[in-house]
Amino acid sequence: MKSADVIKRLKAEGWQHVGGKGDHMKFKHPARSGHVVVPHPRKDIATGTLRNIYRQAGWAWR
């Protein structure tokens, strides 16, 4: 999965970009605790990294 697709889904669900350093973007949701860090730009995110992003965002893993 592309990092752009993950970022698009996060923004659609209300996550806000709050910063990031280098090639990573950090997102925070106003109603949820914690944050999600997405490596960007990446054509393909590694499976383990993608699974961790899903867990942090509260999404069900396929």
TrEMBL record:
One annotated GO molecular function is: mRNA binding
Q: Which domain of life is it from?
A: Bacteria
Give the UniProt keywords, A-Z.
Endonuclease, Hydrolase, Nuclease, RNA-binding, Stress response, Toxin-antitoxin system
Write out the similarity annotation: Belongs to the HicA mRNA interferase family.
Instruction: Quote the protein name from its UniProt record.
Output: Type II toxin-antitoxin system HicA family toxin
Taxonomic lineage: Bacteria, Pseudomonadati, Pseudomonadota, Gammaproteobacteria, Oceanospirillales
